Amino acid sequence: MKIFYVALLVSFTLTIGLPAAEEETTHLAGRGAKTPGHPGYMQVTDTDKAMERAVEHAQRSLGFFMAALRANKPGDTTFEIKKGFVDADRCEHLWINKITYDGKIFHGRINNRPLEVKNVQLGQRVTLAPREVSDWMFLKNGKLMGGYTTRVLYARLSPEDKALFDKEADFKIE
């Protein structure tokens, strides 16, 4: 059984308007320079049915994300996609920000410090085809849109970790 590492969420410094070094984008939704670790990153197995359904939902609804990205409406911010990066027998799903789409390929920068894969790094420019997207998200007037894998992981947090997440995140999960 393989273990998959999934970054729950990146730091949403863009939504709170604070300048941030890229190293600060490794934790749950923190505003300070935090290191990777629980609850920012969680392990899931490759047989996790809830996570499989979340990825399938993200894939089926990717057109909605692409339309919102193109429309660039006021109040829509923090567009990100997630991809699984493979290095030998490890797979780690990382968020990618600064997203553009040229009609065929997404372009962006890795927005989580990898913990398990060594063939990519924080801030690295990457490209990916729509079929490689394992999740997508953006904020609509402070509310999380998409983020299906994040919602699965959020539901698994302890009450204390949910409270910390809710306190540090500058958005709402509904």
* Percent helix: 25-40%
Radius of gyration: 15 Å
Unreliable stretches covering 5 or more consecutive residues: 1-5, 9-39
Largest sheet: 8 strands, mixed
Q: What fraction strand? A: 25-35%
Question: In the residues, how many domains can be counted?
Answer: 1
- Helical/strand content category: alpha+beta
Tally the helices. Answer: 5
| N to C succession of SSEs | EHEHHEEEEEEHH
The end-to-end span amounts to: 32 Å
Overall 3D geometry? Answer: globular
> Can you count the beta strands?
8
Oligomer: single chain
Q: Mean pLDDT, as a whole number?
A: 80
If you had to describe this structure to a student in words, what would you say it looks like?
- This protein is of the alpha+beta class and 174 residues long.
- The protein has one domain.
- Helix content is 26%, strand content 32%.
- Strands 1, 2, 3, 4, 5, 6, 7 and 8 form an eight-stranded mixed sheet that branches.
- A hairpin with a 2-residue loop joins strand 3 and strand 4.
- Helix 2 packs antiparallel against helix 4.
- It is globular, with a radius of gyration of 15 Å.
Based on the model shown, name its key terms.
single chain, 8-stranded mixed beta sheet, globular, 174 residues, alpha+beta
Question: Short summary of the structure?
Answer:
With 174 residues, the protein is α+β, with helices and mostly antiparallel strands. The protein is 26% helix and 32% strand. It has five helices and eight strands, in the order βαβααββββββαα.
